[in-house]
Amino acid sequence: MATDTPRAAAGVRPPADLNPEREPPLDFPARDLDEMTPDDYRALNFMSGLEVHQQLLTESKLFCRCPAGRYVDRYDAEVLRHMRPTLSELGEYDGCALMEFKTKKEIVYLLERGTVCTYEIDDTPPFEIDREAVLIALEIARLFDLKLVSELHVMRKQYLDGSIPTGFQRTAMVGLSGAIPFREPELGVDKLLRIRQLSLEEDSCREVSDIGHRITFRTDRLGMPLTEVVTEPDLLTPWELQAGARLVARTTRCCRKVRRGPGAARQDVNVSIAGGRRIEIKGVDNHRRLPLLAHIEAFRQLELLKIREELRRRGVQREMLEIPAGGAAWDVSPLAVRAERLLAGAGYRPLAEALERGEAVAALRLPRFGGLLSRPTQPRHTFAFEFAERVRVIACLTARPFMVHSDLAGYGLSRTTWRRLRRALQADPEDALVVVWGDPADLDTAVREIFIRAQDALEGVPPETRQAHRDGSTGFERILAGPDRMYPDTDTPPLPIPDEWVDRIEAGLPERPWQRESRYREAGLDERAAARLAASPWADLFDALGPLPAETARRVAAAFARVLAPRRPSLPPPHRVRPLAAALAAGRLLPEGFELALARVTDSPDADPGALLAELEPDAGGRLADQAVARALEQLDRLRTRDPEAALRWAMGTALAGVRGRVPAREVRARLVSAMEGRLEAR
Q: Residue 119 in contact with residue 127, Cβ under 8 Å?
């Protein structure tokens, strides 16, 4: 918030999630991701960080002895619950918890007796924290060079969205204030990525459905141990964000004690720009999606800041948008009216169908918001989408659409109908009108949320948790949680961390990704090849081949990337690849032959490496090359094309048939080019 705002002038401490640069670059033009440069993001003061959640490979869940990692589709019982907020340690309510309470959700849990016990539904106190999970978390914390705590103290973190039946998640801080080398030569990055903390916590339920006021979960995943690694906002472009996420994932996985597969790792992304504040994008399951998501969020914030400035220019004040308590919005404020009679026969089909279903309709006036609701904020979304998403989530309206506004041109209500509504609401031409409909029990909540979101527009970027969509856009999920959601867990005693645990972990720490990259560079690989190999699933297979000459190491690494990448996760055992690499190093196998043999031993467990070496023995005297070229030239006259390049491609395929891997392709090509010169023109 700028220093000249009333709240700052009154001495109110600014929120901690504000971007440190308070002056937004409002003249920055909208651009696509591929048009941006690092300097552009510096001009925006783009900042991003990560919260990476990784399930641990343990036998049991974190606070009970139910099996971890078992997923089921059947269930033996259902439990229905409602959530309510509780006071924090300081006697305050968390805003996010209050928001979730307003949704009036019915929460259904599907229980399967083999994966859940009475602990998960809060009918039994927690068991002793799983020691295996603690040891893995300590090891991962040391991989990030975090300072370990001397005692594990379990806290409760409120979750009223229903994903945890107790209404809170048990979590414990394991390590603080670490850093890892962040070296990305392709991005020109060579710095430390600071790691704020690592926590050990229990996983939430799997969502089955969320329709209206009822949300359904499966509890098989509930309680599985996971770590949360939180970085500082040191990632200054969307591409750095992607590279940082991959580095954190590789560092976590190098202990080989974490789960892999869909849902085993999830990351939340924090993004802000100058003048904005931290927005958390939840549950991004793929690193490839990160750059576009972060880029779109940066420009969403920029557009919201431009709207804020326009509202300030128009003189809009917060009190102009206040709806008093003490009754339905249309009964206590002239800004809203019930509009069923006003809109009877309006001709807009979604509204007509809503009226036929007996739904309630309200019209409301947003003073001096005219023309702003149609302003784009994201690709394919306008400012009105910000209002609609908030209403959808909190008021639980299920119709599509359930809202229409007066800034729309050629869609929705007719001009005559809008004029009628303006008279009823005593609206000026510069005001925006919104019509919203839904279940009568939810309509007042919907109207009030629209005015709350309009007030938030005066702040610019409201603190939110947003859900990632496949197209790179995001939608409202909930208000960003604050520190008031945390309080001590009185059911769980502190767990001292013995020095011998730490000593044993330190002695057995695995090689970190950047150490592995350095070793590969020393073995002769270039920067890109070393980074690619260190991050690959076949790095251990490469290491198992033993020391290789530099040229052989480069060829093996390149062959692995070409041959094994399409065949993941099937990898051949080292003893089947080792004789092939040795033959390549000794010159008894060409690089092309090595790739063919590698593909054969990967695809066929019965393929004999010795027989493959005999079959792919290189053409020492050039006899096979001569025969292959002669065979292609004999058939060249039958070719109808006069395109030299097409003829050469055909001749290469013909010549290499039967001798691939034994004759260097470049040698065959050179002979063909020499022999074919002038032959096509002479025909």
A: yes
Half-sphere exposure of 61 (CA within 13 A, CB side): 26
Instruction: Please give the Cα distance from 495 to 502 (Å, whole number).
Output: 14
Report the mean per-residue pLDDT for the chain.
89
CB 254 within 8 A of CB 513: yes
Alpha carbon 523 to chain centroid, angstroms: 34
CA dihedral 254, 259, 262, 265 (to 10 degrees): -60
Residue 223 in tokens:
């309680």
Handedness of CA 590, 591, 592, 597 (dihedral sign): positive
CB 155 within 8 A of CB 172: yes
| Interior angle at CA 669, CA 667 and CA 670, nearest 5 | 65
- Nearest alpha-carbon partner for 481 in 201, 216, 88: 88
Read off the DSSP letter of residue 489. -
- pLDDT tens digit sequence for 544-595: 999 999 999 999 999 999 999 888 778 899 999 999 999 999 988 888 889 8
335: exposed, middle or buried (Cβ count in 10 Å: 0-12, 13-18, 19+): buried
Q: Tell the burial category of 17 from Cβ atoms under 10 Å away from its Cβ (0-12, 13-18, 19+).
A: middle
In the structure encoding, which two tokens stand for residue 38, read together? 């690092």
What does the pLDDT read at residue 430?
96
In DSSP notation, 122-152 reads TSS---PPPHHHHHHHHHHHHHTTPEEPSEE
Tell me: pLDDT of 225 over 90.
Answer: yes
Computed from CA positions of residues 223, 227, 233, 238, in that sequence, does the dihedral angle turn out positive or negative? negative
Convert the pLDDT of each residue in 318-327 to its tens digit. 999 999 999 9
- Is residue 207 within 8 Å of residue 167, measured between CB atoms? no
Identify which of 554, 402, 390 has the alpha carbon closest to the alpha carbon of residue 475.
390
C-alpha 24 chain-centroid distance:
26
Spatial distance between the Cα atoms of 382 and 386, rounded to a whole number of angstroms: 8
Residue 637's pLDDT is what?
67
pLDDT digits (tens, 9 = 90+) for 459-483: 999 999 999 999 999 999 998 877 6
**DSSP 8-state class, residue 565:** G
Taking only the tens place, the pLDDT of each residue in 414-437 is: 999 999 999 999 999 999 999 999
Contact status, residue 474 vs residue 300, Cβ threshold 8 Å: yes
Q: Distance between CA atoms of 612 and 528, rounded to whole angstroms?
A: 31
Q: Report yes or no: 588 and 662 within 8 Å, Cβ to Cβ.
A: no
Integer Cα distance of 32 and 39 in angstroms = 15
pLDDT for 480 equals 83
- Single out the residue of 204, 222, 220, 259 nearest to residue 58, CA to CA: 259
pLDDT digits (tens, 9 = 90+) for 352-407: 999 999 999 999 999 999 999 999 999 999 999 999 999 999 999 988 899 999 99
> Reduced to 3 DSSP states, what percent helix, strand and coil does the chain have, rounded to the nearest 5?
40, 20, 40
Q: In what order do the strands lie in the sheet with 432-438?
A: 336-338, 360-366, 432-438, 403-405
Model pLDDT, residue 317: 97
Q: Tokens for 157? A: 């973190």
Contacts of 313 (CB under 8 A, 6+ apart): none
Q: Token pair of 99, please?
A: 């928001």
85: Cβ–Cβ under 8 A, 6 or more apart, which residues? 93, 94, 97, 98, 100, 101, 158, 160
What pLDDT is attached to residue 252? 96
Please enumerate, as own/partner, the contacts of 90-95 that have beta carbons within 8 Å and a separation of 24 or more. 90/484, 92/484, 93/484, 94/158, 94/481, 94/482, 94/484, 94/485, 95/479, 95/481, 95/482, 95/484
pLDDT digits (tens, 9 = 90+) for 78-137: 999 888 877 766 677 777 777 788 888 899 999 999 999 999 888 899 999 999 999 999
